[in-house]
Amino acid sequence: MTGLHRPGLLQIGGFPPEVQSQIDAEFERLGAADIERDPARAGDIRAIVTRSNLEVPASLVERLPKLEIIATNGVGYDLIPLELAARRGIVVSNTPDVLNAAVAELCIGALLSLLRQLPQADRYVRDGRWLEANFPLSTSLAGKHVGIIGLGRIGKEIARRLELFGVALAYHGRSDQGLDWRFEADLAALARDVDILIVAAPGGRETARMIDARVLDALGPRGWLVNVARGSLVDEEALLAALEQKRIAGAALDVFDGEPDIDKRFLGLENVLLLPHIGSATQETRAAMAQLMLDNLRSWFRSGRALTPVTA
Ligand code: NAP
After folding, report:
1. Quick one: pLDDT band at residue 31, thresholds 50, 70, 90?
2. Is 145 noted as a catalytic residue in this protein?
3. Ligand 1 close to Cβ of residue 206 (< 6 A)
4. 100-274 belongs to CATH 3.10.20.880
5. According to CATH, what is the number of the domain 3-98+284-303?
6. Would the CA dihedral through 36, 37, 42, 45 be positive or negative?
7. pLDDT in tens, 234-279
């Protein structure tokens, strides 16, 4: 330890200049390279800032004896070693709620793009093919049955927006929330009942590969999948096979295993809409997330309490 005036902070990943300047004004920023050079500096680090799509390795946390808080810029915490943090009394904070609208908007946009084939239609016009024939008919959202896996903060915002499209809604989770929307405890049964399955549950051990071949086959050749949660919830091999063999109608995916280096087989498929993890990626939402991440850190170092600690 070198007795810093400002709390020592380790940053994982990059932030926009306006966020970075606030971090650098209020914290003594150290990088992994600083610790490699001088291992004693690990004792200066009291906070980690990160983004939810980047991993905070347990081995790193173990090397930081004075770590007090891990503040992630995002709502997901599946890449943070929560059990280790809890054992060590390290607080983990995230940025819930401020991104609900952006992710719900992206989900609705992706779903409509998938059903109405908007990217294909755009390409059709650009390629001059409209002069030769009309674009093939697609399918409506109105009247469809939709199942949401994970009716939490984001799932509910998606559901509220979907109601305006005249669909029938049901949801799956660990518990019946006693809402007007129908609860289905059996995921495969939900997949069998609906035309569209939307994934909005957290990543992590409990949900890993829950959308497997059995669920996809229950969804069937007229069924559509939209994933705005985490790639880990879907068995990608099973999904690729189902898309290739047209055992489901199509999928819209904002998240993938191993992103951004996604499985190349997706690129050759026409029945899938591929998005680069942009659920929360609007100017307004990213600013609100960064603000909440910083406010969590400030609150912790001022009062010993984070504003939005992860309680799971
Ligand atoms: P949340 O409020 O915690 O909601 C999660 C929901 O999932 C809850 O309704 C929960 O209901 C359900 N759930 C939890 N474990 C489950 C399980 N094992 N099986 C089925 N359902 C389960 O979280 P949120 O703020 O809505 O965020 C959801 C996820 O969206 C995040 O974890 C994150 O990974 C993802 N996300 C993605 C983007 C993007 O850019 N694409 C942006 C933000 C967030 P029960 O407790 O009743 O099971």
Report:
1. confident
2. no
3. yes
4. no
5. 3.40.50.720
6. negative
7. 999 999 999 999 999 999 999 999 999 999 999 999 999 999 999 9
